[in-house]
Amino acid sequence: MSTEAVAVITFPGSNCDDDTVMALGRLGVPVVRRWYRDRDLGEARRVVLPGGFSYGDYLRSGALAARAPIMDAVEDGVATGRLTVLGICNGFQILCERGLLPGALRPNRDGRFRCTWEWVRVATAPLHWPEFRPGTRFRLPIAHREGAFTLPRAELDRLWQEGAVFLQYCGPDGAVGDEYNPNGSMDQVAGICRGRVMGLMPHPERAVAAYLGSEDGLRFLRAWLASEGE
Amino acid sequence: MNRYRVVVAIRLKPEVLDPAGQAVAGVLDQMGMTGVESVRLGRLVDLEVAADGPESARALAEAAARRLLANPVLETFEVAVEP
Amino acid sequence: MNRYRVVVAIRLKPEVLDPAGQAVAGVLDQMGMTGVESVRLGRLVDLEVAADGPESARALAEAAARRLLANPVLETFEVAVEP
Amino acid sequence: MGPQDVGLTEAEYEAVCERLGRAPNPLELGLFGALWSEHCSYKSSKSALATLPQRGPAVVAGPGGNAGVVRLWDDWLLAFKVESHNHPSYVEPVQGAATGVGGIIRDVVAMGARPIALMDSLRFGPEPASERLLDGVVEGVGNYGNSIGVPTVGGEVYFGAGYAGNPLVNVLCAGLVREASLMSSAGARSGSRVYLVGQPTGRDGIHGASLLASQDFSEHPEAVESMRPTVQVGDPFTGKRLMEATLAAIATGWVQAVQDLGAAGLTSASAEVAYRSHCGMELDLDRVPLREASMTPYEIMLSETQERMLLVVPEAGAAVVADAVRRWDLELIPVGRVVDEDILRLRWHGAVVAEVAASALAGGCPVRTVPEDARWPRPAPALALEEPAFQPEWLPQVLAHPDVRDREYIYRRYDWMIQTRTVWGPDHDVAVLCLHEAPVGVTLALSGPGRWAAADAWAGGAGAVARAIGAVLLQDSEPLGLTDGINCGNPNRPAVWREFLDLVGGIRDAATAFAVPVTGGNVSFHNETEGRAIWPTAVIGAVGRHDHPTRPWPDRVPEAGWRLVLVNPPTVPGLGGSVWAYMRGNLGAYPRPDLTVIPQRLRRLRALLARLPEGAFCVRTVGDGGLAAALVKMLGPEGPGAAIALEPQALVGRLFSEVAGQALVAIRPGAWRAFQAGAEAAAVAYLELGETWPDPVLSLQAGTQGWSWSLAALWAAYRSRVQAPRPSHS
Ligand SMILES: Nc1ncnc2c1ncn2[C@@H]1O[C@H](COP(=O)(O)OP(=O)(O)O)[C@@H](O)[C@H]1O
Ligand SMILES: [Mg+2]
């Protein structure tokens, strides 16, 4: 696990930024905070887009923040291959809206916000992250209104072939089926990973202590921090 | 029975605050599209209606809009039956 | 510079499923409005645009729709400049 | 325009003229109408509320400010208050509830505190007619709280016919502040500038305070209609930026006074700051940023547009504060200045359009005195309820009752974990938060079933206080303070006035008996339709300090073989006011809590449990649904089960009585002797119920008769409320 600094971006309306900073702090990782109007990410080669309601989730979740100045820097860093990116919940929505990850996050199938503990499993091992082995399970909370991963069927099939479908909702034993689908995501998709860009709807930064419900979020973040090939 | 395509356009009443529209306007401005001076967000509902004629299709769509689709406290609606 | 009212109508691509629309259809059905056979939900954006003429107002609105208002992954849009 | 157009009586109008030494002009009359409304002036309730105990060792700020403040640990303080948004939520449930959440959050922020928790208290008419309203209100609470990033860590919901046209939406907010940053509206100094921050002012909710919240809709059917175009819309995005901007402004050290703009908007905010700071204020209304250009001074002063804050800053600090605010894309707009005389002077393009003493506006409304002969408490109404033979189906029926059943269908729509402090969330009877800032935690409880106060408001008020404080104590926490949300009908009707006095009397007597002060609250009157009032409803919030918040006392029994006891079993387990009685259509009167013994008994139980080894027991207070419901919740859906035995006489009462002060405790076998000895030494009375066993079955023996239920079936009843398909506007 590298101890190089991780940048956490705050957009107006982000509200999981402090929790994310604290979670990384628990792992002993230095954090630098970045503001949505900043035009660069400084020295940081890893960046987290935290959860929340950037711009109130107005228009579509993540749509307005995706056009913020700092996102030019994120896009550059991805294009040049020097940046590793994690989008959590609203951060995932921002990455999709920016086109840095495929697909869109539509309203949950019942149209309602949902905050519950769920199980997710690694569906496909992401190329740069050896510690996310297929089948590894995490118990993590979700808290979103727009989390139904959607895109035209043929394109989702292509994502499976590419190995981009990273996380799926599942049962406690790892079984995948619609009964474990909390929001109507196609194929129970909970997270996507393409190249060095990863996004997921669940909140690892909240599952950081047994007394908060689970420590799996620390495991998750540790695995994310252990990316290879920088 | 014929089938009609009916479009219901739902808008916030003009005096009601539209924070989402404000936020969108702010971002368009930042993106350099300064010519956009105001933004108001509304909703669009496309219905397929089975009815005897265009007038009864309209009546059904209006009932749906009044009773369910639009919120009369905050919104107004217009119904258009496509030819 | 003149001011134009421009309406952007945003709809889901026909091949994209609309569960929210289906849910609304189900409720209408339950309420007895069985003539409504399908419901698709879309969005409406009303813009006030300052531009030289209607064509440049349209161009600006189209740019706004393409770059921000509509999500190209799932949606299509139409722009209408009001006379 | 006459006095009645702004809701003033002739006598009040004369008082206005007397204070001014002349007749008010129409704008001035409007200002008085708003601030002398029931909602803003507390003219009916003030003298009764003054009898509540308000002082205590932990109190830093009592009633009177934007929120009460208690000392939590060292220089860390907790600001908290409950606020109602009942009428707006009836007119437009989503926005009404959302703006209610926004309003109470701003009250806490105005104290300089960062909000860390919300709780919501809801009342609706019976289902299914109320479903749409409930859906909308829950949507609204969630929309605002989730978006602004303050967890909704708990709440309560009850149903009753009287609430059908008068739903209640009360919201509690708690926030953390360091002593040095504690703010108030009393610090403004002459010569300083007055600024507005936040949303431009529109015609939202004009007359909301004076008319909407202070009258019955049935008296003014047209009021609902004419209010409609002015419904306030909540904007949590601006709310979030305003919260951050205000806290950042305060952190510069330059802010003298903060006041949120709530009921009666700028009128209330400016008059309050001037009055409490013992100075005056001049405002240039043409400088107030507007959403609609054609607004008049009257509309500007009375607008209830949300997400606005008033700050008082000396000239020298303006630049620094402006920078702090601008970071959040907001502007610090100068609208006036503080002056050294008792005046609120309003200018419009340079000309003075209103000039009235701030003290007359904010402190001058003639108040209603509490009659000498109002001896509290009155004699208790007779409460004997026939106790029929026990029927086994009552157990699942009580568990499935709307007042008891699982609330997951509501709280899953609230983010209750954000800020990562929630050790215990809404799936428990109390919320327990750990703090990142201090080595202690916060315990929060909210309670106030209207059923308990329906026939005897004193008993209901006292019962709610006993239950909220009891829940805090039995989570091993030190109660620091109370906030009370009082909801009643039209106080001008003698019966309602009486209920109100009794409710306050019950709260006062119980708070006094527990020695826990009331540091703030809210009163909402006129919750009635066609002369039928709601049940008098006191929503009591209790806050406590928790010394081991990451290891709360458990409320679920882990395994077979544990002994079950009912602590403080009432000699007469009265059924009045209970869910069981309500279900059978004869509510009766809630048994009056014996305040001479309950506080000591609960404190002794806490001390006794605290001496047992960790993990040796679990505990629950007995509440809605009585011992039966507490037992099933303690066992959990998968078991262990339990075998219990009760006396056949008063069996129904034993199972379903909701008498205050009872607690269900399970003791690990190895700790039983220690519990027994401790209970004897401390004179803690308990009734042995039986033991847990491996079977996921609850069995009950009473004399020669026996019954049993599978926990799966009981939990299926408890969880019987399924999420209805979305009924409201898509
Ligand atoms: N039932 C009550 N018990 C104690 N204090 C109360 C009660 N109702 C109102 N208060 C106090 O009166 C003051 C004014 O309340 P309110 O007008 O609701 O404040 P706000 O204008 O912030 O909404 C507050 O300090 C509040 O705590
Ligand atoms: Mg206030």
Report what the structure shows:
Chain A has helices at 17-26, 70-79, 90-98, 153-162, 216-225, and strands at 6-10, 31-35, 46-49, 84-88, 104-106, 114-122, 137-144, 148-150, 165-170, 189-194, 197-200. Chain A has 230 residues and is of the alpha/beta class. Chain A has a single domain, classed as Class I glutamine amidotransferase (GATase) domain (Rossmann fold), CATH 3.40.50.880. Chain A has a 9-stranded mixed β-sheet, with helices on both faces. A two-stranded antiparallel ribbon of chain A has the order 5-8. The mean pLDDT of chain A is 96. Chain B is α+β, with helices and mostly antiparallel strands and 83 residues long. Chain B is built from 2 helices and 3 strands. Chain B has helices at residues 19-30, 54-69, and strands at 2-12, 36-51, 75-81. In chain B, strands 2-1-3 form a 3-stranded antiparallel β-sheet. Chain B is elongated and about 50 Å long. The mean pLDDT of chain B is 95. Chain D has a domain at 553-730: Phosphoribosyl-aminoimidazole Synthetase, Chain A, domain 2 (Alpha-Beta Complex), CATH 3.90.650.10. In chain D, a hairpin with a 2-residue loop joins strand 12 (344-348) and strand 13 (351-356). Chain D is globular. Classes of the chains: A alpha/beta (230), B alpha+beta (83), D alpha+beta (730). Chain B binds chain D through residues 13, 15-19, 23, 26, 43, 45, 68-75, and chain D through 91-92, 95, 199, 202-204, 228-233, 235, 237-238, 291-292, 305, 329, 728-730. The structure holds adenosine-5'-diphosphate and magnesium ion.
N-to-C SSE series of chain B? EHEHE
The CATH superfamily name of chain B is: Phosphoribosylformylglycinamidine synthase subunit PurS
Order of helices and strands of chain A: EHEEHEHEEEEHEEEH
Net shape of chain A: globular
End-to-end C-alpha gap of chain B: 15 Å
Order of strands in the sheet with the most strands of chain A?
2-1-3-4-11-10-9-6-7
What is the number of beta strands of chain A?
11
According to CATH, the homologous superfamily of chain A is Class I glutamine amidotransferase (GATase) domain
Stretches of chain A where pLDDT is under 50 for at least 5 consecutive residues are: none
| Low-pLDDT runs of chain B | none
Question: Hey, roughly how much beta strand do the residues of chain B contain?
Answer: 35-45%
CATH architecture of chain A: 3-Layer(aba) Sandwich
Ions, cofactors and other ligands present here are: adenosine-5'-diphosphate, magnesium ion
DSSP summary: helix tally of chain B: 2
Strand content of chain A: 25-35%
Largest sheet of chain A: 9 strands, mixed
Overall mean pLDDT of chain B stands at: 95
Determine the mean pLDDT of chain A: 96
CATH structural class of chain B: Alpha Beta
* Helical residue percent band of chain A: 10-25%
- Derived from helix and strand composition plus strand pairing, the structural class of chain B reads alpha+beta
